[in-house]
Design goal:
This protein has 10 helices and 18 strands. The chain is an alpha/beta fold.
Length: about 325
């Protein structure tokens, strides 16, 4: 398992949001963005720079623009001179607002990038933060097979050779979809959930021992592939151990933690004769039932407790 610190290039954000380029800094498209948040520089424009994070994008909306409109040209020049002296990645104007000549003058002086969006400030700000979070969120790569089974994201894990790919190919033949085989890239989203994808190089491919690498989209069609999927359940496949005690009732809920997010988890022992594909399907459906508030094990326990209580009361009578 490996963890990486992500970054996104400014050029990708410009392209994603179709931003108008008013001024450019040196090699602006390749400037790396690593901050998850953005800055609305209300206080910095007044000269207060304590706790000012130079790694964040700057966003000027109607409020800041109205304040700047009330300043003299010399005061605006001083404000932008102080602001853009810091090595900020870029300054973005929203609502299609006109850039003050003093802003562009200081951008040229300090070689800073100035961009513009036509979107409303709150809408653009929300979308930008969400995009940055998706690009920069903590990410790990885990060994396993990621599938969508009845709409549930199922991550199969286990030792090499335990049969993860064999179970997966049977599930794919039943109409479920493959997200990733062997290496699964996992990111934490802004909603505190986990999103799984496949590395671009191996997307759509699987390895089956004895056969080799196969192209799922060519064998089963593009409908058998899904580019990304939220992880709803982790299933650990392990060789059957006669001495081990396996959960037969399912009253206890088990979880595994990935990137500080807890995900429901279960262990399925593997031995000849067990139809693992069917078991995985049932596990996925049962996990959905539990999310909807239905717990079959708890319901059965309640029924048994009620029956025992009635029998006990009948005996005492």
């Amino acid at each position: 398992m490996s963890e990486s610190i992500s970054s996104v290039k400014l050029g990708e954000i410009i392209h994603e949001f179709d931003l108008e380029i008013l001024r450019t800094g040196p090699d602006y498209e390749n400037v790396p963005l690593r901050a998850l948040d953005i800055n609305r520089p209300g206080l910095p424009l007044t000269g207060f720079f304590e706790h000012f994070d130079t790694k964040r994008l700057l966003l000027i909306g109607l409020t800041e623009h109205t304040y700047l409109s009330g300043l003299t040209p010399e005061q605006r020049r001083k404000s932008f001179d102080q602001l853009l002296a810091y090595p900020v990645p870029a300054l973005i104007l929203t609502r299609g607002l006109e850039a003050f000549p003093e802003c562009l003058e200081m951008a040229d002086k300090h070689r800073r990038t100035v961009l513009r969006s036509t979107q409303q400030t709150s809408v653009f700000m929300s979308a930008l933060i969400s995009s940055l979070y998706n690009h920069l969120a903590p990410q790990i790569t885990r060994s396993g097979v990621m599938l969508e089974v009845y709409g549930e994201g199922v991550l199969l894990q286990g030792e090499s050779g335990v049969g993860k790919s064999e179970v997966a190919i049977e599930l794919l033949k039943r109409g479920h979809r493959l997200v990733a085989d062997d290496a699964v890239e996992i990111k934490e989203t802004s909603h505190h959930t986990l999103m799984a994808t496949a590395p671009a190089l191996i997307r759509g491919y699987m390895e089956l021992r004895g056969i080799g690498v196969i192209d799922i989209s060519r064998l089963l069609g593009m409908g058998a592939i899904k580019l990304s999927q939220e992880i709803d359940l982790v299933i650990n496949l392990e060789p059957w151990d006669d001495k081990a005690v396996y959960d037969r009732f399912g009253l206890e809920s088990h979880f595994t933690e990935i990137l500080s997010v807890k995900v429901p988890a279960t262990t399925i022992p593997v031995k000849p004769g067990r139809n693992l594909a069917s078991i995985v399907e049932v596990a996925a459906m049962n996990n959905r039932n539990r999310k909807m508030g239905h717990n079959a094990a708890q319901e059965l326990t309640d029924r048994m407790d009620k029956l025992f209580q009635e029998q006990l009361e009948g005996g005492e009578a």
